[in-house]
Amino acid sequence: MTGSHSAWPAGFIWGAATAAAQVEGAAHEDGKEDSIWDHFARTPGNVANGDTPERAVDHYHRMPEDVALMKQLGLGSYRFSVSWARVKPGDGEANRDGLAFYDHLVDELLEAGILPWLTLYHWDLPQAVEETGGWANRDTANRFQDYAALVHASLGDRVTHWTTFNEPLCSSYIAYAGGEHAPGRQEPRAGLAAMHHQHLAHGLATSTLRALGAQQLGITLNLTNALPDDPSDPVDVDAARRIDALWNRAFLEPLLLGRYPEDFLRDVAGHDFDSLVHDGDLETIAQPIDFLGVNHYHDDNVSGHPLPAGDPGGLSPTDKPTSSPFVGSEHVTFPSRGLPRTAMGWEVNPTGLRTLLSRLGREYPSLPPLYVTENGSAYDDDVSSDGAVHDVERVAYLEAHLDAVAGAIEDGADVRGYFAWSLLDNFEWAWGYAKRFGIVRVDYETQERTIKDSGLAYARIVREARAARAETASAPNLAP
Length: 480
Ligand code: FCB
Hints:
By secondary structure, the chain is α/β, with parallel strands linked by helices. Helix content is about 40%, strand content about 10%. It contains 15 helices and twelve strands. The protein has helices spanning about 20-25, 35-40, 60-75, 85, 95-110, 125-130, 140-155, 170-180, 190-210, 235-255, 260-265, 280-285, 350-365, 390-410, 455-475; strands spanning about 15, 75-80, 115-120, 160-165, 215-220, 225-230, 290-295, 300, 370-375, 415-420, 440, 450. A hairpin with a 6-residue loop joins strand 11 and strand 12 (about 450). Helix 3 (about 60-75) packs parallel to helix 5. Beta-D-fucopyranose binds near residues 170 and 374. The site of beta-D-fucopyranose has 12 residues, from loops.
């Protein structure tokens, strides 16, 4: 049913996404040096099972085969990220061999009729930059601007769609304050500094890329509906407001409106956030953008009280001690609502995606067009005796969430594309290879790829959506 929705607008982009550190492998080949994830993963206890991104799913060597798979699935776009540590190892000189990989990838995609959708930063800072302070150091924003210009010099003649950051919330709060992600720091103020400096880096790179002629510029945020567990309890209502401020509005408002929300500033006042924001920063940050990427997996049910007895809380990938990533609101909790959950322990709640996409346009009149740049689910897949992967739960998740996107478009949301996370099973950060999100299975021993039932379902939905448009376009005009 999903593909035949009348909602899908002309030109709707059907894609799938990956990220460099999660799929490429070849972590120390052809001049590539450590990213923070290579470094972090080498410390025992940081990543489940001691997994590392060293080999990942060998996309670096199997890229033509993977592009052929995308073509077989009928994808219109491939969202990938560039590894800064590959193209500018140690943030030093440009690495021709590293740039050549992306050059070939882009050519291969274009040859297959697939739009390259490039992300500059999907969490893999060169380790050498971390050693000079990483994102807690303001100068990293300038380094990012130079790196962006280098990538543009190499690919700007063919790549039209540029995303500066993927989910800066994770690469700031969770990486620098929570410590679950690389570089694994547990310093609340560094989390805030990383957030502000990534905003600044986004603004600087956006104006540089615009001046260099990039056509479509944007950023991808992971946004949530933060809902009070008990809407009649002021403590829960305040907790949900705090998460909305820290998780959503501390990103949307500077980027779209050139200001930080007042309540967010109050919530983090104890960390001297104001002194991080220099005169002119907000003007730099609020560059016009052509699209906003939205990643959404689940909503957040928020309370200001301790978890009720018996509520196990969220899952942790390792026993590594971590801190709260909720800077200034460390007391918030996320009680279970009894919804079905994926293997990540994340709620399955497609209505949340519809609500989110619909409300953004109402709340931000200057909102640019939206693309769902990630959505998907991890489940513990089995390979059947016939070699197939009958991932019924992932098929159901995909169909329900595409119905939700179609519903949001019917509600008036300007959504112009959807990217499934992920094209391939891959290195799921601190979870290592333990969680599979692919619509294509990867056998980590042999690197063999097998299209799962969810991949087949997605291909069918895309085919039907295209066919429905073609029928609409060629339908006789019966109007009087
Ligand atoms: C998102 C990340 C992506 C992947 C999915 C499951 O937060 O952007 O790399 O890990 O979650």
